[in-house]
Amino acid sequence: MDSLSIGKNGESLQNVLESLRYTGYAVVEGLLEPSLIRATREAMYRAEEEILGHVGEERLRRAGERGVLRLMMKYEQHFFKFLEIPEMLAIIENTVSETAILHLQNGFILPSASQEETPAVFQHPFTRISIVSSMANSRLSI
Fold first, then answer.
1. Is 32 strand, coil or helix?
2. d(CA 107, CA 68)
3. DSSP states of the chain as a string?
4. Beta strands in the chain (DSSP E)
5. Cα–Cα distance between 40 and 46 in angstroms, integer?
6. What is the pLDDT of residues 90-107, one digit of tens each?
7. pLDDT 10s digits, 9-68
8. Which residues pair with 12 in a beta bridge?
């Protein structure tokens, strides 16, 4: 196994994999460059506009999907860049396989809403393992 250093603290790939194995998640700080985070935030808003135009706000609201960005790569090529992050690929290759297939990549832009209007998907814990990039604080949670 590689001795790849990951994130601003230089955490080893082995430590990240152990965290995933024993706790089910790992937080790697400082992996994403601020410029990538800024570009991603802008791309998410562009993708949201495209999705709204394609699906329609009313349909998204009825489905409880307002603020959920699905198929982002369809609307914004920027999201392919996340498949080029060597540290991310190393984790995937060591936990899934070298020939893993990306099943989904979702984004979330939560609109201001009352508790009653908040999409149900955000009112309970997620039940599946997701790779989520937290734009606000440059963390990669797995």
1. coil
2. 6
3. ----EETTTTEEHHHHHHHHHHHS--EEET-S-HHHHHHHHHHHHHHHHHHHHHH-HHHHHHTT-TTEE-SHHHH-GGGGGGGG-HHHHHHHHHHT-TT-------EE-PPP--TTTS-GGGSS---S---EEETTTTEEE-
4. 5-6, 11-12, 27-29, 68-69, 107-108, 132-134, 139-141
5. 10
6. 999 999 888 888 888 899
7. 667 888 889 999 999 988 888 889 999 999 999 999 999 999 999 999 999 988 888 889
8. 5
